Amino acid sequence: MRLDDVRVLDLSRLLPGPYATQLLADLGATVLKIEEPAGGDYARRMGAVGESGYGHIFEAVNRGKRSVALDLKEETAREAFYELVEDADVVFETFRPGVAERLGIDHETLSRYNEELVYVSLSGYGQESPHAKRAGHDLNYAGVSGLLDMTRPDANSKPTIPGYPVVDMASGLFSAFSIVGALLSRELGSGGTRVDIAMTDVMLSFSQLFAGGALAGDTPRPGETMLTGKFPCYDVYRTADGRYLTLAALEPKFWNALCAAIDRPELAENHLSDDPAVRTAVRETLRDVFESKTLEVWLDEFEDTDTAVGGVFTLPEALDRPQTRARNMVETAAGAPSRLGFPALTPAAESVPTTVPDHGEHTEDVLRGAGVSPDEIEHVLGRD
Questions:
Q1: pLDDT tens string 215-232
Q2: Quick one: which of 111, 4, 10, 108 has its CA closest to 61?
Q3: How many Å apart are CA 168 and CA 176, to the nearest integer?
Q4: 168 is catalytic
Q5: Annotated catalytic residue: which of 138, 168, 218, 306?
Q6: Please, which residues have CB within 8 angstroms of residue 207's CB and are 6 or more apart in sequence?
Q7: Which residue segments constitute the domains of the chain, with CATH numbers given?
């Protein structure tokens, strides 16, 4: 599916919002990144600097977009924005609830200029909720959604901060999904629509495996469920070289194949034992076995075994694995730094953008193309 005829006005910044619109841009959508004239997206100046002169975070999720610098608190700039809205398909914003209304760029206002508009808001707690106006970031949302509690090695340990900003990325992905879904719905005749996405809701939806029990009165505890370490067949084991191997042999066929491959057939009958003492004994046996060889030796030995094992790799190692290369997840282009590719093999993403926009680089061209008068453009650019 290509999105070449889709025009997105992206009012988001930092990570989750720009990741959503980056996915759309990778599929061909025209994404106009609306930024404040004074500095623009904070991510331009955050973290290590890439070859563009901007932070790696900014480089990663703003490729191929066009930057338009508008001070939406100023009337002339806001009127220019309304002219952009007339020809837009999507407005996507990540302001704290209430800000869009104060700026005069809320759904109700913009619908007067374009009744077919898809208007999507992404915020931490949603537009209307007890915590709607509360500040937050990924870690806060991970905490209140139950994710952080389940990262403990055991119930008595301190929660572990996930290595990736899971809530941010999941929310960006869900936003992109919601935008495409709303566009399809519009094509089927439903007209414009309003979508309100809360990052905490997105992460709560990831709790499907445990939510049923929790709603019934149970409290899932880390280390005591099938996917958090209760059973030896689903765990992480140290190898002889100090590396780690993942084992996820939940299905009997995978467990039986594992037991045969390590020459421990006696373990097969204790796959998902309810006896804690049996589980402890099995786990200790597996620990001794896996600590007898290096990670790469184990991976080589399991290459032709139909069981669920893998390595724990650093990110540079993961990016350099043959599997990663085969899936085109690392792309290189002449004169441009290597970057992550689109996470699906589809003709729609065979040619994705590689460059990031300078702050306000496309303001004049975009406004002129939208029919904004020369005098207004000069005022917006501060040249009158």
A1: 999 999 888 899 998 999
A2: 10
A3: 12
A4: yes
A5: 168
A6: 145, 146, 147, 214
A7: 7-206+354-380 (3.40.50.10540), 234-319 (3.30.1540.10)
